[in-house]
Specification:
Blueprint (H helix, E strand, L loop, with lengths): L1 E5 L13 E5 L7 H17 L2 E8 L2 H5 L12 H11 L3 E6 L2 H4 L3 H8 L5 E7 L3 E2 L5 E2 H6 L6 E5 L11 H9 L3 H8 L4 E7 L4 H5 L4 E4 L10 E9 L2 E10 L13 E6 L10 E12 L6 H21 L1
Parallel strand pairs: 1-4, 2-3, 2-5, 3-4, 5-8
Antiparallel strand pairs: 6-7, 9-10, 9-14, 10-13, 11-12, 11-14, 12-13
């Protein structure tokens, strides 16, 4: 998959005369709704004999237009989004820098620069996609601005038995630790990619060594608690139990941001510095402050047993 990074006004062209069937949107999470949009674009590309492409934006608009407290965490940070798009068979990924100059573009100018001049012959997006200054453009105006240069496909609302499948719903589910329901909307288990770093080695002292995973900045994590997970690296998929949180039993005032600590079952090799993926399978319990280390050790033993039962059943 070819990746092009674009920006306005400095870099709004590519050295190619190829034509594209384009899926456009932010696509955070690449959930089942997003997958439908992208698959439609791929199908159209095959029908027209041109390349399939996805245009996404970085960073999230909330990081530019919202206040400091309104920044939305990423379900799929950039590298994970790129991996998933490649696995779907997308030929080209356009990553447009989202900043205030881009946000101020009028819809017609956005279409001229990022659709017509990019060799796009078909645009596919969800029914609620908006673009241009203050979101004034929508898929109806996208079609009106085409001037015969490109066609459009609008994908309607994709729902499950409860409601529209959306990134907002997934974030809400993760905020209460419901990774199982979030995974159903994603169409796959949620993954968090990060590097294994040195920690305080509290787990090893308790008899349960952990891999401390440092996730990408801005990555959204499930609610603090204990989860059955798989740890993926070097072609391996290992069962584990993961604690996300601030370890309240140890009362360390330096720990403010949640930590991701994975105890891999039946494994005790040195994997410091490795890039790994934590695949979240099921929530076991919330984070608890224990009155004694013996109580904590006993609970971790139970958590290991629970996680093994969950993962074996899968």
């Amino acid at each position: 998959m070819d990746v092009y990074e674009l920006s306005y006004p400095g870099n709004i062209s590519i050295e190619s005369d190829e034509q594209f069937s384009l899926a456009i949107g932010f696509f955070d999470g690449l959930h089942k709704g997003h997958q439908t949009v992208i698959k439609k674009a791929i199908e159209k590309a095959k029908a027209l004999g041109i390349r399939s492409a996805v245009m996404t934006f970085n960073p999230h608009p909330s990081h530019v237009l919202g206040g400091g407290e309104n920044k939305i965490g990423y379900i799929t940070p950039f590298e994970e989004k790129k991996r998933l798009l490649n696995s779907m068979g997308v030929d080209v990924m356009f990553v447009v820098e989202f900043d205030k100059p881009l946000a101020a573009l009028q819809p017609a100018m956005f279409v001229d620069l990022f659709i017509k001049k990019m060799g796009v012959k078909h645009v596919t997006a969800g029914f609620d996609y908006s673009f241009g200054s203050k979101g004034a453009g929508n898929m109806e105006s996208m079609a009106e601005l085409a001037d015969g240069v490109y066609g459009t496909t609008v994908v309607g609302k994709i729902t499950d038995e409860e409601d529209k499948i959306s990134s907002t719903r997934i974030r809400e589910l993760l905020s209460i630790g419901n990774v199982e329901a979030a995974s159903l909307l994603l169409g796959r288990d949620l993954r968090t990619i990060g590097t294994v770093v040195h920690g305080e080695k509290k787990g090893r002292q308790l008899g349960f060594p952990t891999a401390n995973v440092n996730p990408p900045e801005g990555c959204i994590l499930p609610a603090n608690g204990v989860y059955a997970v798989r740890l993926l690296f070097d072609g391996l998929s290992l069962d584990g139990v993961c604690n996300v949180g601030v370890k309240p039993t140890f009362n360390n005032p330096d720990i403010k941001a949640p930590m991701v600590e994975v105890h891999v079952l039946n494994f005790d090799e040195d994997i410091y510095g490795k890039e790994v993926a934590v695949e979240w399978v099921e929530h076991i319990r919330g984070e608890i402050k224990f009155e004694s280390l013996d109580a904590l050790i006993s609970q971790i033993g139970q958590d290991k047993k629970t996680a093994q039962e969950i993962l074996t059943s899968r």
